[in-house]
Design brief:
3-stranded mixed beta sheet; two-stranded antiparallel ribbon; globular; mainly alpha; 5 strands
């Protein structure tokens, strides 16, 4: 699965700085080549290695221009800009920008290490994205390579502990004075709107130690929280009823968490507005379409559904659909908003699950599942292609899509003829 880049205007004359924030281990290289590569592509992987190599030899007091980077990587400014986005999205790179009054532009690139295979495959967002990118067979092979070997039943650990062996005198001031903030050992945290601090505080107030949650479960809750536009405190309240302890570790019932957030999210939360600033929109105009795109890019899907129906709380069946569009098909939240808007237009107000899933899968295949603008352009392009195909062939018989319930169906339950009929009905003059 690949994502489309944010628009940038990089010039060969723009200055840059590279800050190395971590060091790659052998495991880091393995993660990059096997786990990250299917998500970022060879071009972005090559750029990452070039930036990482340069970060090892910082140029004190000297800011080179991008021209040297373009020559070193063999990339054009446009190709370079395209390659930055997946690196940033996965936390391998953070980009900062400044421009002085004279117009001089400076970019600062912070280079981070890949997650270890354990952390990558334990992350619900990353492992799910990889699974969609490589397919079930390849993912199964990866899973078998990295799965923990089973432990013989009945064994008890008898390992030597640190204090037993070293007998440290913790009153010795050398311990307090020796720690410092060293290089990181992984990527930057994925940019989500979830407030983990507020979540942890509220969960602790409810009597559950947030530190017992695994990174995988925390990432899942953060993702689900962003889908509904919920604040961290509210997410903690929903999660509390879905958690229990097993061998001292927290176990999250994910399906129960989905259900509780879906059914319990109050209308006041859905009306709150943007959950975060979101990604800067690629549309700078103030046209109605541009404003609509910006709303799609900043509102959670549950909030956007509420907006489309006059502030009323969305139906549970509709919320289940947007959950599946994200967790099962792999659409970003802005792309889900664009798709929902499109399907409601095509069907004149019916959020058809089969049609949404069919078009959602098409967005993933055409690499337009990241931003609202990409999704809208892809859907409109598909509409134009179908119109052209219709003109070149015999007209299809008029046939309206039969009313659908929102139960899970196979993606092929919407035929091309039915899709064309719906499009013709929605856009009779196209």
């Amino acid at each position: 699965m690949f994502y489309t880049s944010r628009m940038r205007n990089l010039s060969a004359s723009d200055f840059y700085q590279i800050r190395g924030m971590a060091r790659l281990s052998d495991g880091g290289f393995s993660s990059l080549s096997e786990l990250y590569l299917p998500l970022i592509g060879a071009r972005a992987a090559g750029l990452y290695l070039a930036l990482y190599q340069e970060s090892l030899y910082p140029k004190d007091g000297v800011l080179p221009t991008h021209e040297s980077l373009f020559l070193k990587t063999g990339l054009t400014p446009g190709e370079f800009a395209l390659a930055l986005s997946p690196l940033e999205a996965l936390g391998l790179l953070r980009t900062f920008f400044a421009q002085d009054p004279s117009g001089t532009k400076v970019y600062s690139y912070e280079v981070y290490a890949p997650k270890s295979p354990k952390d990558f495959l334990g992350d619900v967002l990353l492992s799910g994205s990889l699974r969609k990118a490589v397919g079930e067979e390849a993912y199964k092979a990866i899973k078998e390579r990295y799965a923990l070997p089973p432990r013989i039943e009945g064994m008890k650990e008898v390992s030597m502990s640190f204090p037993e062996y070293f007998h440290p005198d913790l009153d010795d001031p050398v311990y307090a004075k020796s720690a410092f903030a060293a290089l990181l050992d992984g990527p930057a945290r994925l940019a989500l709107s979830f407030d983990s601090g507020a979540f942890a505080l509220r969960l602790t107030q409810l009597g559950f130690d947030a530190k017992k949650l695994s990174e995988e479960d925390l990432s899942f809750l953060a993702d689900l929280s962003s889908l509904y536009g919920l604040p961290g405190e509210s997410t903690a309240e929903f999660a509390y009823d879905c958690l229990h302890l097993s061998n001292g570790r927290a176990v999250l019932d994910k399906e129960k968490a989905k259900k509780k957030m879906r059914e319990g999210a109050s209308l006041s939360y859905l009306r709150k507005g943007p959950v975060s600033k979101g990604k800067p929109t690629q549309t700078d105009s103030d046209s109605p379409l541009a404003k609509k795109v910006r709303i799609m890019e900043t509102y959670a899907p549950a909030q956007y559904l509420s907006l489309l129906q006059g502030g009323r709380k969305p139906a549970s069946t509709d919320l289940r659909l947007v959950e599946d569009l994200h967790f099962e098909i792999g659409l970003s939240y802005p792309a889900i908003n664009a798709l929902v808007d499109y399907v409601l237009t095509v069907t004149q107000g019916e959020l058809s699950r089969p049609l949404a899933e069919k078009l959602g899968a098409e967005l993933v295949r055409k690499e337009a599942a990241s931003t609202a603008r990409d999704a809208m352009e892809c859907l409109n392009a598909s509409l134009r292609e179908r119109r052209k195909a219709k003109k070149r062939s015999d007209p299809l018989p008029e046939k309206e899509i039969e009313p659908q319930n929102n139960e899970k169906e196979d993606e092929d339950s919407v035929s091309e003829a039915e899709l064309e009929a719906a499009l013709r009905k929605a856009f009779p003059n196209g």
